[in-house]
Amino acid sequence: MTRTRFQHELDRLKQNLLAMAGMSEQAVQRAMEAYGSRDSKVCRLVLTGEASINLAEREIDDLALELLAMQQPMAVDLRFILAGIKINADLERVGDQAVNIAERVMRLITLPPADLPLDLPRTGFLASLMVRQAIEAFVRGDAALARAVLQMDDQVDAMNDEAYVTMSRVMRDTPQYAEQALNLLLISRNLERVADHATNIAEDVIFWVQGANVRHGVQVSTGGS
Amino acid sequence: MTRTRFQHELDRLKQNLLAMAGMSEQAVQRAMEAYGSRDSKVCRLVLTGEASINLAEREIDDLALELLAMQQPMAVDLRFILAGIKINADLERVGDQAVNIAERVMRLITLPPADLPLDLPRTGFLASLMVRQAIEAFVRGDAALARAVLQMDDQVDAMNDEAYVTMSRVMRDTPQYAEQALNLLLISRNLERVADHATNIAEDVIFWVQGANVRHGVQVSTGGS
């Protein structure tokens, strides 16, 4: 493989990851749309869409393996490919979370509607945005944008902690809505995991771009606060 | 790097992953021990132990990167290293789940004890066993053992589904125990995720050993049914 061909294939890896991210993010958005509209047809779209995401994951892994096998990559390319392999796994799991949410919505639809004090669409919006920005950071090689994703994760965590407090109170005080409250809380936790995967992706981007591992609280200078 | 040195380093990668697996599995067992004894000291052991697991993860990633950079690996070694990178990420997340369980137990300890009809230690035992067997399958290169792990996952999923039914009934019928039931259900889901990670590891072992990707339902002949 020539160097030009290698660069071309690296670019293909990036494009495939971008497409994969689009599918995963869309799955989360659809699951939340189904939550809003109580629409089991949209839930089933998410469930059947999982196969395409899984297939895309496998193709990306094969491409990465091929890239590693065909040419001894330079250090910077190696880090890029490794980041791609990890991001791929995280995107697939974002898709899994969308499936979990769709399953919870399927259950909710069978229960009487209950107007409970929890703004899940807001959490869903933030979690989706984190995935999109993490992938944008990857495509652009933008570590500053990746760091912004890390900060958003704290917000989603706080929203999820609040969901625990609010929904366990509903369960205790209005047991007739206990199962509805439980499903809302489980969706909140699924969204929190989507945000965790976005955070992992952002950390992998920073690892690749800066050659610094910011996972687990190791500081990277931002030039600012 | 000579070929012998390279093999030696590959072996070191395997040994490090084995040690990492031991730490992650121990974290889950400790969290479940804390659940049984309602002991916040044991919970804190799990919480403080997370840093060591994160450090071990980073060292393994660095070692894998070094192996890929120093010598153009043969296809079989490349698959092994890639499996190692993915297994590493899954083991770290097993540790995360142990932390989540310990946090749930910390909350449970603050609530009045409730004797609820859910055998979480049994689920915990199975999930831990799956992690241990998946790693044994990796160390021995044993695809048959890895496939046994995949089957155990169905059992854990069934136990987790049952936990949903039982605990949502408790919430509805005895709302004074709603929060205890909720925390038990959340622990059940954490254990189900531990089992999922063990499943991912088993799939990576099969990918490496057989050169076949059994992820997402692609069949691998077992010579049996």
Detail the topology: elements first, then pairings.
The structure is a homodimer.
Chain A: H1 3-37, H2 40-70, H3 75-109, H4 120-140, H5 143-173, H6 178-210
Helix pairs in contact in A: 1-2, 1-3, 1-4, 2-3, 3-6, 4-5, 4-6, 5-6
Quick recap of the structure?
Two copies of one chain form a homodimer. By secondary structure, chain A is mainly α.
Describe the structure.
2 copies of one chain form a homodimer. Chain A has 225 residues and is mainly α. Chain A has one domain: Methane Monooxygenase Hydroxylase, Chain G, domain 1 (Up-down Bundle). The first copy, chain A, is built from 6 helices and no strands. In chain A, helix 2 packs antiparallel against helix 3, helix 3 packs antiparallel against helix 6 and helix 4 runs parallel beside helix 6. The radius of gyration of chain A is 19 Å and the shape is elongated. The termini of chain A are far apart. The C terminus of chain A is likely disordered. Chains A and B meet through helix 2, helix 3, helix 5 and helix 6 of A and helix 2, helix 3, helix 5 and helix 6 of B.
